[in-house]
UniProtKB/TrEMBL annotation:
Residues 6-120 form the Response regulatory domain. InterPro entries: AAA+_ATPase, AAA_lid_NorR, CheY-like_superfamily, Homeodomain-like_sf, HTH_Fis, P-loop_NTPase, Sig_transdc_resp-reg_receiver, Sigma_54_int. This is Sigma-54 dependent transcriptional regulator. The keyword Transcription applies. The modification 4-aspartylphosphate is found at residue 54. Residues 164-393 form the Sigma-54 factor interaction domain. It comes from Candidatus Rhodoblastus alkanivorans. SUPFAM superfamilies: CheY-like (SSF52172), Homeodomain-like (SSF46689), P-loop containing nucleoside triphosphate hydrolases (SSF52540). It comes from the Bacteria. Keywords: Activator, ATP-binding, DNA-binding, Nucleotide-binding, Phosphoprotein, Transcription, Transcription regulation, Two-component regulatory system.
């Protein structure tokens, strides 16, 4: 085990966990948990010296979690990360939770490492004033076993079989194509709408490939200006630019032997595209300010919600880079294109929300599920997750989630069915609204609307007649 000790990161956001782990793992053994239950299981093994917890988590704040931890596991040094430097809920709970320090976002890597170093020193002093005693840290073998188990668990977490879908639906063909991509060490370009799950598919490709035991790192190329993006991906030498206080390893070097996922690659500038092209051609990177290049062996999986071929024709994206990235193209269908998957996806997300919120909501009311299936979901799975979180938060018990818990944009809510109406009238009113919306969104195409709603064309036509919804309809498949 690294003599600096084991650090536990508790954060519900995957990218945030990976970012913290990436910085800290150069000096510390790092364990990660996405929720309180996972964190408590790790703490029960007596492996942790420092807990680094995000403040904003669903169901429970970081301060509340650390307050509970203090009662059962008082030894680990507790730290909080927050986006608000003077957040009242943090300040009020610092003493009660025994929080050693809180770090504000955006955090600086060197500052973060210094804070954790100090926390490890404090842990040692608490265990034995003269230094770290023989029993003050977990054994090397025990921690290595736990770390290996976590790596295996991560691989299982992102297996293709974990991606919820109906085998005969459009997602089945996409996953079959993606499985083929795991066999060959070539660049993959995933296209599809924002929120459709491109990163999840990229992880499945990586962990299903021969590189699955190595690093998988992620960067959103549209979130940073060129200079910072270049530093983040290729690294930099101390003094290369204002704010470069020390040498920094880039993500390509950290991913050596593994894979890098370049999200929103279509947002990069032509100037940066030249530098990225060189990396793909030469298989080497040159950190900012460095005199020499370094060889790297990295598989590139990229993603975009843009039509890159149109971008190439418009002169906004380099043709040669496009062909480098597009060696194995995969298109990910949107949620609106796979309505039959929605019940299973919603049930899976509900289970996640239950764990995060410490609730036990079992299911959705049939009327609610009908509305979920009929919605167009412009925000895709991300929007569906948010909707389910809201519904669970709004519910007062663990009964099936009723349609009035949906947000107004879903076409339900208290005004959708008045309390005085008979149940039959409420159900018919809801059904009419669902069918009308489906027809409107599909430009009156009865065949497609029937498919989305799980009805036969004959059955849907009968309901259209019944609810007097006939407009400019067609029956084109």
């Amino acid at each position: 085990m690294n003599p600096s000790g084991a650090v536990l990161i508790v954060d519900d956001e995957l990218r945030s966990r990976e970012s913290l782990q990436r910085v800290l793992s150069e000096e510390f053994d790092v364990l990660c948990a996405q929720n309180a239950q996972e964190a408590e299981a790790i703490l029960a093994g007596d492996l942790v010296q420092v807990i680094l917890c995000d403040q904003r988590m669903p169901g429970e704040t970081g301060v509340d979690f650390l307050r509970r931890v203090r009662e059962t596991w008082p030894d680990p040094v507790r730290m909080i990360i927050s986006g608000f430097s003077e957040s009242e809920d943090i300040i009020a709970g610092v003493n009660e939770a025994g929080i050693y320090q809180y770090i504000t976002k955006p955090w600086h890597p060197e500052r973060l490492i210094d804070c954790v170093r100090d926390a490890v020193k404090l842990y040692r002093m608490q265990k034995e004033p003269g230094g770290l005693g023989a029993d003050a840290k977990p054994s090397h073998d025990t921690l290595n076993r736990v770390l290996a188990d976590r790596r295996r668990e991560q691989r299982r977490m992102f297996e293709f079989d974990r991606i919820v879908h109906e085998p005969d639906g459009p997602m089945g063909a996409t996953l079959a194509l993606a499985r083929r991509a795991t066999r060959y060490d070539i660049s993959v370009l995933i296209t599809g709408a924002s929120g459709a799950g491109k990163e999840l598919l990229a992880r499945a490709i990586h962990f299903g490939s021969a590189r699955g035991d190595k690093s998988f790192v992620v960067e959103n190329c549209g979130a940073l200006p060129d200079e910072l993006l270049e530093s983040e991906l290729f690294g930099c030498k101390k003094g290369a630019y204002t704010g470069a206080y020390q040498d920094r390893i880039g993500l390509f070097e950290l991913a050596d032997g593994g894979s890098i996922f370049l999200d929103e690659v279509g947002e990069t500038s032509p100037a940066f595209q030249v530098k990225l092209l060189r990396v793909l051609q030469e298989h080497e990177i040159r950190p900012l300010g460095a005199a020499r290049s370094r060889k790297v062996d990295v598989r590139v999986i990229s993603a975009t919600n843009r039509d890159l071929e149109s971008e190439v024709e418009a002169g906004r994206f380099r043709r040669d880079l496009f062909y480098r990235l597009n060696a194995f193209p995969i298109h990910l269908p949107s949620l609106a294109e796979r309505p039959d998957d929605i019940p299973a996806i919603a049930a899976n997300l509900l289970a996640e929300v239950n764990r995060a919120f410490r609730r036990n909501v079992k299911s959705f009311a049939p009327e609610t599920m009908a509305l979920l299936r009929a919605h167009s979901w412009p925000g895709n799975i991300r929007e569906l997750r948010n909707e389910i979180q809201r519904m669970v938060a709004m519910s007062d018990d663990d009964a099936p989630l009723a349609p009035e818990l949906l947000s107004p944009r879903m076409g339900s809510g208290p005004t959708a069915a008045l309390p005085g109406d008979a149940l039959k009238d409420q159900v018919e009113s809801l059904e009419r609204a669902i069918i009308a919306r489906a027809l409107e969104e599909l430009d009156g195409n009865i065949s497609r609307a029937a498919e989305r709603l799980g009805l036969s064309r004959v059955g849907l036509r009968a309901k259209i007649e019944r609810y007097q919804l006939r407009r400019d309809l067609n029956d084109v498949g």
